[in-house]
Specification:
By secondary structure, this protein is α/β, with parallel strands linked by helices. It has helices spanning 5-9, 25-33, 45-48, 60-73, 92-106, 120-128, 144-147, 157-173, 185-194, 215-218, 236-253, 267-279, and strands at residues 17-21, 38-41, 78-82, 110-114, 133-138, 177-181, 198-202, 210-213. An eight-stranded parallel beta barrel has the order 1-2-3-4-5-6-7-8, surrounded by six helices. The chain is elongated and about 90 Å long. It starts with a helix and ends with a helix.
């Protein structure tokens, strides 16, 4: 049976929740088979799937396209889909409309949006419309230009107070979970104790109620920059690169396809075909 919002909330302060990103059917199905509790169709697809410099160019249509595929692949995991840049910032009405469209067209179980106090009214309205919400505070990639880059948030007293207020605001607005990105571990642990919502950390220490990673990062899918908070559980880049190089070499040497990858035809058929061609 599919993991429900009540299953997840029942684990707060008990058994930590696991979450990974996915953007396509096959990856979602594999993550689901592994028993991961939650799948996030993140707007990080802009970086890791579409090759953008950041997440800002991602559209609602992009999220729906990838979200549909993921929801078809995940039979048990709880699927959350990001609301992309400018899909909720403009107004409460736009926020509800776009959240509703994402849920209706993908069959996901929740949406996620970035921001704290300033977007609590959007969260409240979306929840009142019957759509579960995951909030996202700390480092919020959609605000990367305003933040001056990808930096740890909450280290100063002023920033820490702001994050506590943000967490309280989204919790009271009805978010059932809060993603804490690049937040000092001690502060994340404090937020976890002070909120009813599940806290899901990414670069926020192991005191949160759960953890999330971008699957390409944790699998070593590329050899580019990897954030400090990522643990590489595999090195798929090297495996894929070696396989691609071997394939190229075997193509050039005509050792692929070998007989075992080739379909046969009877000699009598070929002889008859040859004779027909000769008579022409």
């Amino acid at each position: 049976m599919r993991t429900s919002i009540f299953d997840l909330l029942d684990r707060k302060g008990k058994l930590p929740v696991s979450m990974l990103t996915a953007y396509d059917f096959h990856t979602a199905a594999t993550i689901d088979e592994a028993g991961i509790d939650m799948i996030l169709v993140g707007d990080s697809l802009g970086n890791v799937m579409l090759g953008y410099e950041n997440t800002l160019a991602v559209t609602v249509d992009d999220m729906i396209h990838h979200g549909k595929a993921v929801c078809r692949g995940a039979k048990n995991a709880f699927v959350v889909i990001d609301m992309p840049f400018m899909s909720y910032q403009t107004s409460v009405e736009d926020a509800v409309r776009n959240a509703g469209r994402i849920m209706k067209e993908t069959n996901c179980q929740a949406v996620k949006l970035e921001g704290g106090v300033e977007y609590a009214d959007r969260i409240k309205a979306i929840v009142q419309a019957g759509i579960p919400v995951v909030a996202h505070i700390g480092l919020t990639p959609q605000s990367v230009n305003a933040m001056g880059g990808y930096k740890v948030q909450g280290r100063s007293l002023e920033q820490a107070k702001k994050l506590l207020l943000d967490a309280q605001a989204v919790d009271e607005a009805g978010a059932f979970a809060i993603t804490l990105e690049c937040v000092p571990a001690a502060l994340a642990k404090m937020i976890t104790y002070q909120t009813k919502a599940l806290t899901i950390g990414i670069g926020a220490g192991n005191g949160c109620d759960g953890q999330v990673l971008v699957y390409q990062d944790m699998l070593g899918y590329n050899d580019g920059f990897i954030p400090k908070f990522v643990k590489k559980y595999a090195d798929l880049h090297s495996i894929m690169l070696d396989a691609f190089k071997q394939y190229k070499q075997e193509c050039e040497q005509r050792s692929f396809p070998a007989e075992s990858q080739t379909y046969a035809i009877g000699d009598d058929v070929m002889q008859e075909l040859f004779e027909v061609e000769v008579r022409r």
